[in-house]
From TrEMBL:
Its cofactor is Mg(2+). Its EC number is 6.3.2.3. InterPro entries: Glutathione_synthase, Glutathione_synthase_a-hlx, Glutathione_synthase_C_euk, Glutathione_synthase_N_euk, GSH-S_sub-bd_sf, GSH_synth_subst-bd, PreATP-grasp_dom_sf. Pfam families: GSH_synth_ATP (PF03917), GSH_synthase (PF03199). It comes from the Eukaryota. Belongs to the eukaryotic GSH synthase family. The lineage of its organism: Eukaryota, Metazoa, Hemichordata, Enteropneusta, Harrimaniidae. The gene is LOC100378646. It catalyses: gamma-L-glutamyl-L-cysteine + glycine + ATP = glutathione + ADP + phosphate + H(+). It comes from Saccoglossus kowalevskii (Acorn worm). It is an enzyme of class 6 (ligase). This is Glutathione synthetase.
Amino acid sequence: MEPCISLPLEKSLLDDVVAQSKDFANVHGIVMRRRETPLSSDVVCFTPHTLVPSPVPKKLFYQSVDVQNDFHLLMHGISRDYQFLKSVLSSSMQHDEFQKKLFDIYEEVYINNIPCQPIMLGMLRCDYMFDCSGGRDISTDKIQLKQVEVNTIASGLAGLGTQCTRLHRFNLENLGKSEIASSLPESKAVGKMAEGFVEAWKLYGNNKAAILFLIEELSWNIMDQRWLEYEIRNLDKSIPIIRRLFKDVVERAKIEDNKLILDNYEIAIVYYRYGYSPEHYPTEKEWEARLMVEKSQTIKCPPISYHLAGSKKIQQELPRAGAVERFQKYFPDGEVTVKRIRNTFAGLYTLDMNDEGSETALKNPNIYVLKPQREGGGNNLFGEDIKTKLEQIGEDKSRAGYILMDKIEPLVVTNYTVQSEKDVEIRKMVSEIGIFGAIISNGENVPFNSTCGHILRTKTVSSNEGSFAGGSAVIDSPFLV
Ligand code: ADP
Ligand code: MG
Ligand code: MG
């Protein structure tokens, strides 16, 4: 795919544009704490980024945007379907303590009808790649949008992603490409997500109550969260916003009159930017705290039912006949919505006993990705590692905790990456687009359903996982072709 400018750039021009790109990023808050000092904002650094936007097929970009609200409704429907969640997650739960504990909380709260909060807040990010396994010709329908996953908890990068378009416009202008600069699609992700928070906060109905950002201690990506916090403040300065660790909730939060109280604040919304991984729950106390929050009247973002609906095991189930259709009553466009959703699915296979998934994968591991039920990047297996893993697991029932997915053969682009203390070189890279969205549900009803904006993350072709958190991907923005 042709880049949006002719590459390579002449050395002195490149040096100048790169230096300006770093300064612009620093001036405009496209920054992170340094990995060496994740507890301190004394010294921060621009966020690693591509120098210019990477090409994205226009049709696929709009396809990903157009299906976003549908996915919110699908997740909403799943979150309300106890039988579906139970039957799909039952096999993986048997051997996955983490998944089981999440489900136990869900079950205790929802089945026992504990009075809690009917209003739910979801901040989602659906991720996709542009699959070229059918051919690389952009002028045909051969390149297809394929969903990598739906994130229903701690979906980050709306803050930094929103600013990246601004940065790329500036760089393109410096390269004399103002026309391309003005044609880039706007991402208003962080502002629109903030609107979701404000709406949910109003529905809670106490103008003294706070929004709690539940965060991790080593917050090297804190500025991304700050962007969201400040956008909420821009919309309504009266909303108290506090940031606390899970540990603080464990130690000091309490329930009074079914309300969640922490440090003298009544909490209107708990926004989890943490709590999605087993190591976030080192003792039973963290589980007790999660249960306490879930039972309380506070609005959870996400509630545990949304967290479970975003499981990879659920993703694997959805392509099966009837699975998406089961939730059709939630879709205003009925079958048309079902089709829009289904069109984004990659091939997904179960590794449950008696299924053929693992045999198929052993024969040809290079065309699959093996995924455990985990979040946060760095967990998946590719190629020969799939074989080793499957042979190691053998017939053990823990196999059901994994899903097998067709490996997407992504569109390859060329771009420069701007990273601290690294040479700026032209690299062959692949992109993953993330579409942000916000949903508020109140029982069956969905009073707020909003597609918020996008982020592109781009990684070198050679790295299998494009984790931004792990340092192998950089932020980017789409140039539509
Ligand atoms: P996580 O929840 O940990 O982010 P993902 O499902 O997003 O898990 O996988 C992590 C990364 O692995 C993705 O960002 C992508 O780079 C790569 N990946 C995941 N699924 C596929 C796939 N089917 N084909 C190719 N690469 C994939
Ligand atoms: Mg994820
Ligand atoms: Mg991911």
